[in-house]
Amino acid sequence: MALTADKQALIWKTLNETRGKIEPSEYKNYIFGLMFYKFLSEKAQTWLDSQLRGETWSSVWEQNPEKAAAFMQTKLGYVIQPGELFSDWQAAINVDQFNITNVADALGHFNQGIQPGAKATFEGIFDDMDLTSSRLGSNTQTRTKTLMDWISLIDQIELDEDADVLGDLYEYLIGMFAANSGAKAGEFYTPHQVSDIMARILTAGREDMPTYSLYDPAMGSGSLLLTTASYMKNDGVRGAIKYYGQEVITTTYNLGRINLMMHGVEYNDIHIHNADTLSSDWPDGVQSGVDSPRMFDAVMANPPYSLKWDNTNREDDPRFKAGIAPKSKADFAFLQHGLYHLKQDGRMAIVLPHGVLFRGAAEGRIRQALLENRNISAVIGLPEKIFTNAGIPTIIMILEKNRTTDDVLFIDASKGFEKQKNNNKLRQEDVDLIVETFLKREDVAKYAHLASFEEIKENDFNLNIPRYVDTFEEEDPVDLVAVSQELGDINRDIEQSEADLLAMISDLAVTDDSKVIIESAKQLLGGHHE
């Protein structure tokens, strides 16, 4: 993380002081939108400085706006007109000439100036910034003041020359907004430690591949894609790594697009869609009656757990050959979708609830088919309460399409974590142990077991981790003789204490009124010795 913890805390505190009555779930849309516009503006300005050779952007634009726009579009995929850079907004604020229409006009012009080939990446990316919302203020003047505060705040964030600093800040804020946005925050955020486990397993031994394609069918903020790419040698090389994903929630889809670009991913390496993965397969799919799905080197996902879905008329869908997941639980539908799009030598990691390991009926049949086809490589049990606002324990399942062995590695990592205020957090040593154990594929007492197919078959294809990893800790045997002696010592101490108290009561100088109380106390204590 390029930003210090103190700087992160200061930025979060300052943001909260300026947000007024806006809920974090809505507030984040404006903050992230303004941050992204600043990022695009600075990228445009840096490029202009390298191209204009002393001319101003305004003078070039005045000579031929169409040619100037095409000039910037060719390189960046978008256009920001003169006077509409983020720095221009701040300059207008400094001389008291800023109005909310400055932002509205700039965003409108941005949408009109997107290169046709970049529309899938940029189009509608600022749509969640509703500049007419009463949440910003009751009138244009107060809404303008709110935007001025936010623009000035974001302008003060020193980000040096390191592009990753802005991306890291964005990722940090996503996590903070998730923690403060209620139960549905998990729809867009996977804790970095979990992403790290999945990424390291997916890329192990493959870091030097010259090209690499990633796919997340429920991509949320895109953190799984970014973390996985970060372990590849060619991360940051334009064209080397391709990012694919789908996200059904439009606001979250926008969040993901922004996150990828703010981490330095070029627009033409991004291929993501705002669509329902289960009802709308990847757009390549079936063409002219022929199934020609796109395949990926790595598939990763943290889909919504036990989601209700429409499972009718799925029998002919090639993604679900192992069976149709029940309509009340789409877990195996997401799993099969991802596996279907995996290359023959690819690797897949998916976060799922524990129920997929042992539930019966259709899910039991799907599980058996996956095991018989040698698709399941490992099952990793995670601690409870490590996901934002989700207390249930989860697993990471690792799958491959073309394994030569049929064993399954079980890892029970549920006990290794650091307890925090409202949740649990995997420590670095916990992450390292999980990854190292996966790579070694050996038994570890009370932690991991490499189960043969026959062993799994004897368990009726039930993959519940306690069937394979015994974490039971025996308590030390009770020494009855020592306990008896201790009880005797305690009784003798009690008798001595009562005798001492009786002696003290007898020595008291008393009045007639208190004699009855004292005699009653002596009888009560004395009765214990009869």
Care to describe what's here?
The protein has 3 domains: 5-180, Up-down Bundle (Ferritin), CATH 1.20.1260; 192-467, Vaccinia Virus protein VP39 (Rossmann fold, 3-Layer(aba) Sandwich), CATH 3.40.50; 480-526. The chain starts with a helix and ends with a helix. 45% of the residues lie in helices and 12% in strands. The protein has a 9-stranded mixed beta sheet, sandwiched between helices. A two-stranded antiparallel sheet has the order 4-5. Helix 2 packs across helix 8 (140-156), helix 3 (57-63) crosses helix 4 (65-76) and helix 10 packs parallel to helix 15 (428-440). The model has no long low-confidence stretch (mean pLDDT 86). Strand 1 (212-216), helix 11 and strand 2 (241-246) form a beta-alpha-beta unit. The longest helix has 28 residues, at 24-51. It is of the alpha/beta class. The chain is built from 18 helices and 13 strands. It is globular and about 110 Å long.
Helices and strands in order:
Blueprint: H1 5-18, H2 24-51, H3 57-63, H4 65-76, H5 86-94, H6 100-112, H7 119-122, H8 140-156, H9 163-179, H10 192-203, E1 212-216, H11 223-229, E2 241-246, H12 250-262, E3 270-273, E4 286-287, E5 290-291, E6 296-301, H13 331-340, E7 342-353, H14 361-372, E8 376-381, E9 394-399, E10 408-412, E11 418-419, E12 424-425, H15 428-440, E13 448-451, H16 453-458, H17 480-506, H18 512-526
Helix pairs in contact: 2-8, 2-9, 2-12, 3-4, 5-8, 9-12, 10-11, 10-15, 17-18
